[in-house]
Design goal:
The chain has a domain of 139 residues: Serine Threonine Protein Phosphatase 5, Tetratricopeptide repeat, CATH 1.25.40.10. Helix content is 82%, strand content 0%. The radius of gyration is 22 Å and the shape is elongated.
């Protein structure tokens, strides 16, 4: 069925009763796929999404068919088979346009927007998210609107637009509280806390996380558990509470070491835990346990980047810093330059600034050192990452 669909042959359209049964079955598989997706079970999620699509195709044009194509766009991207993901994305748009149902169009825009965010097609992702958000607002579907705004907030956090992350998640928190949706309440607090930590407002971040700790630590959504724990690690560590920061970092590490990345939103946490371990390893280079954990988090980042190309700049950055810690200076510099280049191409300003900062630290030539540190300072100022800005200002002061 998949081969015939891809080469443009029309599927069999069943009679009315059989068609209704097929669509019900497709809907059940769709729910199963969603459950496995949020449980970080990629294989079963893709299998269920594929069964949903195979079943929906037999029934011809339908809302279920459009949603199934969108879900397989996301599923194919996790393998990663971006060629197929692009085909499924186009099919989803075509079917949704043919049906002309607002809720279905919104669902397709949301799901394909998640795919485009993961590959760094930021403009397309934002356009899709905002289109979906407008439709869900008009439909009065608060839950789906929150999910869409949440994805927008994740994307802006990766792009360094922390004011937008806070604003979107503030709105989510209000409506989620009205609906008493503990999952979304926890998520909105966690993402605001991440933005506050990046702006060097760790006390506010920790207060927000403490308010929902019981919600995210007991959540059935593994992604929320990982992101919540990682956010606590980063906030405590940057506040100067190294012991507590490491405690939460190790909790997060235990969760991520045996799970495959299924969401683009995991990037800030993978990067944060890697950064914490690398910072500790710099002062304890002979700690074999710490070195093993650091190596594993870098390996996890590499696995993430295979699925979500937006992770590539972070891979080169942290790999470069690891090589520096291990005394491999030349390789470290090459990797940091690669991080700088890819972060510019991917339009990820925070990693771009970090790459400039780390290059500035190791440059022997005074002019090159000054150039990189000044570039880092300008970007950190622009995106409002006060913690990092203080560090680069200290280096510029002592020159």
């Amino acid at each position: 069925m998949q081969i015939t669909r891809l080469i443009g042959l029309k599927p069999r359209v069943s009679d009315k009763i059989e068609r209704a049964v097929l669509l019900d079955i497709a809907g059940v598989y769709e729910k199963i796929a969603e459950t496995f997706y949020f449980a970080n079970n990629t294989v079963y999620a893709i299998y269920a999404a594929l069964r949903s699509l195979n079943t929906a195709e037999k029934a011809g044009l339908s809302n279920e068919l459009a949603r199934s194509y969108a879900n397989m766009c996301l599923g194919a991207s996790l393998t990663p088979a971006r060629f197929l993901a692009n085909i499924y994305s186009k099919r989803a748009e075509q079917v949704a346009d043919a049906i002309d149902d607002m809720a279905t169009k919104a669902n397709v825009k949301l799901v394909t927007g998640i795919y485009y965010a993961g590959i760094g097609a930021w403009d397309t992702a934002e356009m899709n998210f905002k289109s979906a958000a407008e439709s869900y607002y008009r439909l009065g579907d608060s839950k789906r609107l929150e999910q869409t705004l949440s994805s927008l907030g994740h994307m802006h956090a990766i792009l360094g637009n922390f004011d937008e992350t806070i604003a979107y998640n503030h709105d989510i928190g209000i409506t989620a509280s009205e609906r008493r949706d503990e999952q979304m309440i926890a998520s909105s607090h966690i993402w605001r806390s991440i933005a506050y930590t990046m702006r060097h407002q760790e006390a506010e971040a920790i207060a927000m996380l403490n308010a929902v700790e019981s919600l995210f630590t007991q959540s059935p959504d593994e992604g929320i558990r990982i992101i919540g724990s990682g956010a606590k690690a980063l906030a405590h560590y940057r506040q100067g509470n190294i012991e507590l920061g490491m405690l939460w970092a190790d909790k997060t590490f235990r969760m991520i070491q045996n799970t495959a990345p299924t969401s683009f939103s995991l990037l800030p946490i993978y990067a944060a835990i890697t950064g914490i371990y690398l910072n500790q390893l710099a002062s304890k280079p002979d700690d074999s346990s710490l070195r093993t954990r650091t190596q594993h988090t870098i390996k996890t980042l590499k696995a993430y980047a295979k699925t979500f190309p937006i992770g590539k700049p972070s891979v080169w950055l942290w790999e470069g810093l690891y090589r520096q810690t291990m005394g491999q200076s030349q390789k470290s510099e090459r990797l940091l330059h690669k991080a700088l280049e890819t972060s510019i191409n991917m339009r990820v300003p925070y990693i771009q600034a970090c790459s400039h900062y780390e290059l500035g630290k190791i440059m022997v030539n005074p002019q090159k050192r000054q150039h990189h540190l000044q570039q880092a300072r300008e970007i950190f100022m622009e995106i409002g990452t006060e913690y990092d800005l203080q560090q680069v200002n200290e280096l510029l002061t002592i020159q």
